């Protein structure tokens, strides 16, 4: 069934709210990064802005997932939205009053990062409750597409605010993108636990990280988590801040349009890929599909790193974006479908920790390699390492599949 999740009663509003929230998230990024550079011209602060967004995912995703297992996921998401709003209002007040200091930026960036980390596990649990098991793959793909759409329109909206009303007032206006989701979650009756088959255990601190030793019992979940971790460590989001240098290599110094196309190409590919998957209809979520699509992303990134042709570079980024949404949505679907219902939040937290938390290291890796061999070569080496990781993991998964098939055949013969 094409776009099957849209049949679920509460899904359309939830998808719209999530898309608007992601647009607000990225509009704030566009405004804050510009403000910090104009005020302080600090590369260190700019680097911290990236790290602060992902480090909370690394250290707190599993505890936040435990909260999602135990409490009303609507209220957890509303709390995260409240943190997004506090961050935007804080930026606006400090900018308009002329009192913004570097330590203010550090605090507000961390608030924003914690808001993102708090949202993700609860979001995964609640989507399962809204769509149910049968329509979950469609729901995850459409939400990933909505997130990509928010990433696409958010920076543009931030730029419009910046050059019309200014960064301070723009921050206050940006709050409006979060409010519809806050209100909708008061209306929606589902709390994330309607489809749960068993009650969660009492929340004890010593049990919060018990999900990690369980992962080998779920080979498909473990495989996609390892693949997402490799993607985060080797490439992550480090490519985006390096696009100006690639723009110079492609001769785009004087072309605002050309550089703009580089900026949006990946998001355009992700949105197009998500819509194409839904147009096809049901696609079986498997570890092999997640690994193959990650390998395709690595190939496209390698082509982009080596390319000196603008059309080829744009095409590589578009396909990379499409392959990313296939890998991410397939991996998340596997985690949500195969994790124990009472611990789905913690498994989603572990998935967020490996896939998003690992991104904090990609900038350090590529930045360090870039100092030694240059940025294009650094990206090419990282893409090659990701491709090798995908190939090794695919061989392991395929071997396990053959072993299971042989075991099943012997059992039938006996």
Which percent range describes the beta-strand content? Answer: under 5%
The H/E string reads HHHHHHHHHHHHHHH
- Characterize the main sheet: none
**Radius of gyration over alpha carbons?**
21 Å
Separate helix tally: 15
What average pLDDT do the residues reach?
86
Per DSSP E runs of 2 or more residues, the count of β-strands stands at: 0
Structural class: mainly alpha
As residue ranges, the low-confidence spans are: 405-414
Cα shape:
globular
Care to describe what's here?
- This protein is mainly alpha-helical.
- Helices cover 79% and strands 0% of the residues.
- The protein contains 15 helices and no strands.
- The chain has helices at 11-40, 43-70, 73-97, 102-164, 167-174, 179-187, 211-214, 219-234, 243-249, 256-280, 287-306, 310-338, 344-355, 360-373, 375-413.
- The longest helix is centred in the first third of the chain and has 63 residues, at 102-164.
- The two termini are 40 Å apart.
- The model is unreliable at 405-414 (pLDDT under 50).
Question: Any chance you could write out the topology, listing elements then pairs?
Answer:
Layout: H1 11-40, H2 43-70, H3 73-97, H4 102-164, H5 167-174, H6 179-187, H7 211-214, H8 219-234, H9 243-249, H10 256-280, H11 287-306, H12 310-338, H13 344-355, H14 360-373, H15 375-413
Helix pairs in contact: 1-2, 1-3, 1-4, 1-5, 1-6, 2-4, 2-13, 3-4, 3-5, 3-6, 4-5, 4-10, 4-12, 4-13, 8-11, 8-12, 8-13, 8-15, 10-12, 11-12, 11-15, 14-15
Summary, kept brief:
This protein is mainly alpha-helical and 414 residues long.
Question: Keyphrases for this structure?
Answer:
single chain, 414 residues, mainly alpha, 15 helices, 0% strand, globular, disordered C terminus
């Amino acid at each position: 069934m094409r776009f099957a999740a849209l049949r679920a009663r509460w899904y359309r509003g939830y998808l719209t709210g999530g898309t608007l929230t992601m647009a607000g998230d990225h509009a704030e990024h566009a405004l804050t990064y510009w403000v910090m550079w104009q005020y302080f011209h600090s590369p260190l602060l700019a680097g911290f802005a990236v790290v602060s967004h992902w480090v909370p995912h690394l250290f707190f995703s599993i505890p936040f997932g435990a909260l999602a297992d135990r409490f009303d996921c609507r209220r957890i998401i509303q709390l995260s939205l409240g943190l997004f709003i506090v961050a935007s209002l804080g930026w606006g007040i400090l900018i308009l009053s002329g009192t913004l200091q570097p330590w203010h930026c550090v605090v507000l960036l961390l608030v924003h990062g914690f808001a993102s980390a708090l949202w993700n596990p609860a979001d995964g649990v609640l989507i399962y409750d809204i769509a149910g098991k049968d329509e979950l793959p469609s729901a995850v793909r459409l939400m990933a597409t909505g997130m990509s759409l928010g990433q696409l329109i958010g920076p543009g909206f931030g730029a419009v605010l910046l050059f019309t009303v200014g960064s301070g007032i723009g921050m206050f206006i940006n709050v409006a993108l979060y409010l519809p989701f806050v209100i909708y979650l008061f209306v929606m009756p589902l709390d994330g636990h309607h489809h749960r088959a068993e009650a969660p255990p009492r929340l004890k601190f010593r049990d919060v990280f018990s999900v990690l030793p369980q992962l080998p019992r779920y080979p498909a979940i473990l495989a996609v988590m390892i693949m997402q971790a490799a993607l985060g460590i080797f490439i992550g989001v480090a490519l985006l801040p390096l696009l100006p240098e690639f723009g110079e290599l492609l001769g785009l110094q004087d072309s605002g349009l050309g550089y703009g196309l580089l900026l949006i190409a990946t998001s355009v590919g992700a949105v197009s890929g998500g819509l194409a998957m839904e147009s096809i209809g049901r696609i079986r979520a498997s570890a092999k599909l997640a690994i193959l699509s990650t390998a395709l992303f690595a190939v496209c990134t390698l082509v982009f790193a080596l390319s000196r042709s603008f059309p080829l570079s744009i095409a590589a980024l578009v396909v990379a974006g499409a392959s990313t949404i296939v890998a991410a949505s397939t991996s998340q679907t596997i985690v949500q479908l195969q994790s124990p219902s009472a611990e789905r939040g913690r498994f989603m937290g572990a998935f967020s920790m490996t896939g998003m938390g690992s991104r904090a290291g990609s900038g350090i890796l590529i930045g360090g390699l870039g100092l030694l061999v240059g940025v294009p070569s650094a990206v090419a080496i990282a893409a090659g390492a990701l491709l090798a990781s995908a190939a090794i993991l695919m061989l392991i998964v395929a071997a396990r599949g053959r072993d299971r098939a042989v075991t099943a055949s012997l059992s039938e013969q006996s």
